[in-house]
What does this fold into?
Amino acid sequence: MPIHATAVGSEIGPYEKDVTVRSSLAYAAGLGETADVYFDDARPEGVYAPPMMVIPLEWPASRDIRETPEFGATDEERRRVVHAAQDTQIHEPIRPGMKTRCLGRLVAVKRIKPGTMTITRLMLEADDGTQLATSYSSAIYRGIDIEGEDNIEDEPPAWPKLIPAGDWTETTVPIAREMPHIYTECADIWSAIHTERAVALAAGLPDIILHGTATLALGIKEIVAHHLHDQPVRLKRFSCRFTGMVIPGTDIQVRHAGAQNGALFEVINTDGAKAISQGLALFGDS
It folds into this structure.
């Protein structure tokens, strides 16, 4: 069953979620973050959540948009989805004590060579209406066609040109065999291919694989540590393409280079392939 082009414009949510000290610390710990800005809640100024915590807050809307009646496709076809790209603008940093809500809207359905690409816009805000983040999450449905013509209502805004200013630096990050299990629980993002080997093998994968958003979060962790000196409030936007898998129990290489008002990065897996490509980060003053 094809995906319906007329589904563009359909919405889901809002999904409400509290950001507690416990959830913020757990997410940081799941990534191995121990910087005081994330981990020392006894500081007079308190702590911030890691920037990538927008992903767990967006996850229910991102997950469920394809379950709407307007969407089309069968359950089996929807299981073929892969997260293709992420582009997130951070309007205000996330802190414990916030009550958030997220609204998802399908904004594009278009044909590509492997099948169909969809783009979901995710609007995250505090309960007082303050905008926290806007994300565009792109997904690919392999081997699935569209009913109707390509339908594009909105796409991520254009990026400024980022040119590396200096040499690329490479950081080796070991991925523990149990990391997908830890990330699943700390981020509250679950799919069996990340934790159950029998399911992963049945899906044609060589093993369980690390969540793409966890791989991205590890890349962002290096960007904030090396280029922003553990000042996450200066990270204003990040994007990437998910182009390869990471097998737990191996090492990844995070390659990054500074640029004017930002940085470029990519993540290389143990086979030398790019798990994250075209990584971009944009900085602000505060």
